[in-house]
Recover the amino acids of this structure.
């Protein structure tokens, strides 16, 4: 066995442990009876310790040294070279993070999340404030341990989006904000209520389930290597490319909830299912290379796939012109008198709103910018936790001309910070930018794409995405991938062009 | 922290790893898409290695020494004393088994099981023979590593039934065989076909599912700490007392399949759900003691609980007198003209048959004896694998006066040996013996028990079983438990008395 192979086998074991934790989390969120909550956290903590001990070890250090020496002499497979470099980077990073700090973060997590949930239910920020203060302090320590030259945010964002910085995000956000606010003003001037409330009626869950399964299959989600279940907060999780689990949420009244969550999570799933078999150790792999950790190349890159299939495909006029009949057959009484065009309008109406997860494609990124700016300020301590609600409300007024009636619909609305996740929000907007940029590049590369999409043939797009992006797993950064297919790194222009074109048609703008 | 507590924490981590493997196995058998099979085995192998490394380690040795010294000075809690002794025994046993042998067994398993499945489908013993020969050779090595004074079977049976020997089983089987064959002859003389074939019609799966959920709840299975799913081979598995999963199998025609499998597995589940909280580390445990590994005290003891709830309760006249109405309401057309008495007769008809898993309470144990005698002979090499089918058929003729028309319905019918499980079959009969012995003791202890059971009040029995058996987990051996409640160790008399009484009433014997 070569040194490169020995390292790959060692990392494959580490990935087995990470995938096992994913199985435990999937079960926890979809199948576990309530009593299981009393032991599942401890099981996960034990696995976390074992995984960390496996990776941050003398064995990893020795195998890395040997693999690096070996590849210095002979040209390594490009995937292998990347896998070694990423393993080295992850090893050095994890070594810098004290085990005691990881333990403190893990310990505080459940109590902090529980405090957030109660505070949100009572819309009482003060009861959550001490937990958020502790969680923030630990994350500032984490940023110090990771290291940064400009500001703490830059350290934490590496966990999700390697190479990204607050400065670069600031520039992207500036362009995007200007474009979005102008577009939003033109839309608002023309916005009118829908002729009737489509979601006052009941949409039976069994039929919704059937439709969600069909829609995920339509875009190519492979049930031989995956499942679709229901979960209160939809998510995708993979236990290797051979077994990818997606979930959606069913609302008896609001039909779009389950449909778009299914398309979104299936979009994540397509990324995982189409990673090259060479990057995953499995019974099917004949020329195993391996890679550090699992899945797509960054959180933002993963989000590109889910957003592209949910929005660019799933919220397009062509999609509903073709598939609205499926909804009408499933719900003939509820959708009587509604046609594809009206349904398309209903699921794309853009207007300022208070809640991020209910926002449309135009306003969504404004919700993200607000959060990113606040977390940068919290981390560099220019904003105190006590002043967070006020800062939130001021920004909401500034961007969307709205003031939350209470903190539940303001600074308390998202779970992320309570769970100790800072510097992750920007990934949603990076995903939106990248989706538009990749979709535009796909059109340039495949002139016939509009016709195949209009016919409901999604294989051409999926195969191109697999070839250009999915198959490479984590081997190339999102900027490298974007530059290869579009000639430039992450940019705001494609998203602004896409929204301009889509909303001009929807609202008759000019 | 005391030395006893430090050991308990270390073993609790080991149990977390074992429970994690159980979660992976449950998922594999109930939810996993087909593609997952390409990686799940590797994930389990990685976990197995990590668990073994955790347990067979210098740390375990040091913690054990310290805990033993500590308890030599002060009186330990009786549970703690047992936990330490069992951990010591398991540590010494596992240290004796070479890692290379465990690896070979694990490696051969899937290929051997696959060869068995094809051989069974084609009823072609010859294609399976080389795999069984290898598997047997490895198990003989395993027996040598474990050690024995009389015969190899005695070493292997310790894995499932500590303290049991071939000699003791031989004596129990001799008494049982004589009693069963006499009873069977009297039954056969009176046996008549049922007035009509109840299972020619279709029983919708949705309604079966509802009934299975109800029946498991009736006997006390707690869905706040468990779930019931479907699986091709029903099983129970626990991830601690707080999260116990049971499964059943649905046959569109044969309604009793799902009902009795659900009662059987719920019976296993009741054992796990009622282990003392002190023996499991959980968020609810205030005075944690811990124990080595998880669940009931032996395989046979676990089987006592499933058999008792399936047979002594679920196949009783009183049970169906009370609950047959539920079936009739669910399936009014299919069960038209059938009453509780006829249904009770139908699910208790006793007669010689070829297949173990379809056998009645009288003939079932004859199937087990046949297998136990064969595996003893294979292990001490007085029987060659090549001669297995012939030996099987001769014993079938001897015990049940039947000759299998092919090996699929003969020596190839069970998966156990192909999977490398030898010396486990007797646990089924030990379970049957113990169920009758415990049930008789319960009647002695609670004179009003027949009345509460006739009213469908199962709480009195369940509470008594919890107090006398379930709560103790692995703290006492099955013989210790039996002696405490019935005044004698495992015995055949209670089962023979129970069957005599039940079948006398059913068949009008005298």
């Amino acid at each position: 066995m070569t040194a490169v192979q020995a390292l790959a086998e060692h990392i494959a074991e580490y990935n087995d442990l990470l995938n096992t934790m994913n199985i435990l989390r999937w079960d926890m969120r979809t199948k576990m009876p309530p009593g299981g909550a009393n032991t599942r956290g401890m099981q996960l903590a034990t696995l976390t310790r074992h995984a960390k001990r496996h990776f941050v070890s003398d064995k990893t250090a020795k195998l890395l040294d040997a693999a690096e020496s070996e590849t210095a002499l002979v040209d390594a497979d490009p995937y292998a070279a990347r896998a070694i470099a990423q393993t080295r980077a992850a090893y050095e990073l994890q070594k810098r993070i004290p085990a005691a700090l990881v333990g403190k973060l893990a310990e505080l997590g459940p109590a902090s999340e529980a405090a957030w949930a109660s505070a949100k239910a009572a819309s009482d920020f003060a009861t959550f404030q001490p937990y958020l203060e502790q969680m923030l302090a630990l994350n500032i320590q984490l940023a110090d341990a990771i290291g940064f030259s400009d500001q703490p945010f830059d350290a934490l964002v590496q966990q999700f989006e390697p190479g990204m910085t607050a400065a670069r995000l600031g520039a992207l956000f500036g362009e995007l904000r200007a474009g979005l606010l102008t577009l939003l003003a033109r839309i608002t001037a023309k916005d009118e209520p829908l002729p009737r409330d489509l979601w006052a009626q009941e949409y039976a869950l069994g039929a919704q389930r059937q439709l969600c399964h069909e829609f995920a299959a339509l875009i190519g989600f492979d049930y031989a290597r995956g499942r679709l279940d229901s979960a209160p907060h939809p998510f995708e999780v993979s236990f290797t490319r051979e077994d990818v689990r997606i979930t959606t949420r069913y609302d008896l009244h609001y039909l779009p909830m389950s449909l778009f969550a299914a398309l979104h999570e299936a979009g994540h799933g397509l990324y995982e299912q189409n990673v090259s078999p060479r990057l995953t150790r499995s019974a099917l792999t004949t020329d195993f290379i391996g890679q550090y950790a699992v899945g797509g190349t960054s959180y933002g890159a993963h989000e590109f796939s889910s957003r592209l299939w949910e929005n660019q495909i799933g919220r397009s006029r062509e999609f509903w012109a073709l598939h609205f009949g499926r909804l009408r057959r499933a719900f003939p009484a509820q959708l009587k008198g509604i046609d594809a065009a009206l349904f398309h309008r209903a699921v794309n109406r853009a207007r300022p709103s208070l809640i991020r997860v209910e926002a449309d494609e135009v306003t969504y990124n404004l919700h993200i910018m607000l959060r990113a700016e606040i977390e940068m300020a919290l981390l560099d301590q220019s904003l105190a936790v006590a002043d967070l609600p006020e800062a939130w409300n001021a920004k909401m007024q500034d961007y969307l001309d709205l003031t939350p009636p209470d903190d539940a619909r303001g600074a308390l609305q998202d779970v992320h910070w309570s769970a100790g996740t800072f510097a992750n929000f920007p990934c949603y907007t990076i995903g939106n930018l990248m989706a538009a940029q990749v979709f535009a590049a796909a059109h340039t590369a495949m002139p016939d794409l509009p016709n195949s999409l209009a016919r409901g043939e999604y294989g051409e797009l999926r195969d191109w995405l697999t070839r250009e992006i999915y198959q490479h797993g984590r081997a190339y950064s999102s900027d490298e991938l974007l530059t290869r297919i579009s000639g430039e790194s992450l940019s705001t222009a494609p998203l602004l062009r896409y929204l301009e074109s889509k909303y001009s048609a929807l609202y008759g703008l000019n």
Summary: The interface with chain A takes residues 12-13, 16-17, 19-20, 23-24, 27, 31-43, 46-47, 49-50, 54, 222-227, 239-240, 242-243, 280-284 of chain B (CB under 8 Å). Chain B is about 60% helix and 5% strand. The first strand of chain B starts at residue 226 and ends at 230. The longest helix of chain B spans residues 3-30.
